[in-house]
Structures are given as structure tokens and as C-alpha cells.
Amino acid sequence: MIVGFKNLLIAPKSLSPSSISLFRACPQKFKLSYIDKIKEPPTWHTVLGSFVHEVLEHLYKQDPKDRNQEIVKVIATDRWSNHGWAEKVNKLAEKPDTIAGFKRSAFQAMINLWELEDPTTTILEGQEVEVLTEIDGVALKGYIDRIALDADGKVVISDYKTGKVPDSKYVSDGEKWFQLIAYALMLKEAHQKTTSTLELYYLSKKTKHSVAVTQEHLVNAQQVIVRTRKSIDESCTSGEFICNVTNLCNWCYYKKIDICPAHRN
């Protein structure tokens, strides 16, 4: 060992809107996940969300006239049986419900889409769209659930959610919309596309939230991206990643496996 040298922490070369949100929520959790590469294993709820996303993605690959709830059953059955989803769920360490319960919850979220839009008349420009760009020297990469165009040819960015609607007492509008606003900024930088509207589909609750994108949104997101990149780099240099201790720690994987400095026994 060379005297005078600390263990060097290497920050990721590129960030995503989700990784930026994670650092802002808890720098230590970001470090454990993105720098130490200790990834959280899938959970019942994350797997359910991913399964619903995949089935709806394949729904919108069908001819519009064939997009009905029966075809959702066909797609879900095929993805479950032939594309590894049964194995993924069966491998989960913790199962708060039965496999039948998983299927019921997932299917209900899928068909709730019909309460929010008519899939036979919905035209999408892209799904799981990869976006690579730089914002003021910060390399960014992300995937957008779905993109459509409004009547004026401007972009509408949508994201499916299978969890609860965030409580405004604990989650600000800025936090709630940051990731989609960041995607709007990335699209503008990478492809010179203007985004007019952002949509969050809370499928399990049959609720859709929308917001019009403003220049103020984009400027704020740009500032957050640059500021967060700077903070990550400074933390890597100093070796100090603070732990944001809140009630949410009770659901944190890193506390559970006893490696979070704030909770280590």
C-alpha cells in the first residue's frame, strides 16, 4: 500500500434521472448502489411493476383494433410462461402474497389502463426509448417508458406506475416530476424535440396526473443535474457520502443487510 493514498472512489461516467433522484434522497444509498455496486435485489413490488410494463409494451405493439383486454391476457400468459417471469417471482426471497395474488394485482393494473385512455385510439411514437446526451458537460442516459405527440406535434412523455400515488405531504411536485422533466430536457438537447406534457399513470389507482412543461421546469432540472454531478464528484474525492436518516430507512435494503453506516450494529 502506498502511504498517503486513500481508496479512490470512482463515480459513474454517466448519470440517469433515477440515479440523480437517488443521490438527492440519500447520498450513502447512491454510493452503495452505484459506486460500491451492491445492488438491491428485486422485490415483489418492483417485479410486479416490471411485468406490467412489459405486457403493456407488447400490447401497444399490436394492431390498434386488436388492443383489448383479452389480448392482454394472452400476452401476459405468454410472457409469464415463456419469458422467465414465473421463475423471477418464484425466486423472490419475500412473497407478501400468493402467486395467484401477484397475477391478480398485475392484471388489474393492466386493465385499469382502459379507465385512463382508449388503447385502440392511442398512437405512440416510441416505447422504452433510450436517450443519450450531455447537459452542461454532464453525461446522461435513460429510458423513457413511452412517447406520443400532441395535436401540435410536440412530445408527450408518459410513465407507468404500479405503486401508490405519492403523498404531497412527503413528496414535493419537484421531486415527483423531476425524472420526467429531466427526460424532456434530455430530448431537447439530444434531438431538439420540445416536450409539452408529462403524464404519470398510476395504474393500480386508476389515476393519471399530468403537467405542462415550462421553461422554468427545464432550467430547474438543468441546475439540479449540474449541482448533483458536482456533489457526487466532491463526495468521491472526500470519501464522504452522508446518510439521510428518515422513516424510509425502515424499508431500506442496506439497513436490512447491516451495511449502512448510519444503522450498522
Roughly what is the average pLDDT, rounded to an integer?
A: 95
Poorly predicted sequence stretches spanning 5 or more consecutive residues: 1-5
Which fold name is given in CATH as the topology of the domain at 126-218? Lambda Exonuclease, Chain A
Described by strand count, sense and barrel closure, the largest sheet is: 5 strands, mixed
CATH architecture of the domain at 126-218: Alpha-Beta Complex
Judging from the principal axes of the Cα atoms, what is the shape? globular
Strand order in space, largest sheet: 1-2-3-4-5
| Rg value | 20 Å
How many strand segments? Answer: 5
Top-tier CATH class of the domain at 126-218:
Alpha Beta
**What percent of the residues sit in helical stretches (DSSP H or I)?**
40-55%
Kindly report how far apart the N and C termini lie: 29 Å
How many alpha or pi helices? 10
> Could you spell the SSE succession in H and E letters?
HHHHHHHEEEHEEHH
> What structural category do the secondary elements indicate?
alpha+beta
Strand content: 15-25%
Explain this structure.
By secondary structure, this protein is an alpha+beta fold. The protein has a domain of 93 residues: Lambda Exonuclease, Chain A (Alpha-Beta Complex). The chain has ten helices and five strands, in the order αααααααβββαββαα. It has a five-stranded mixed sheet. Helix 1 packs across helix 2. The radius of gyration is 20 Å and the shape is globular. The protein starts with 16 loop residues before the first helix and ends in a 9-residue tail after the last helix. The N terminus is likely disordered.
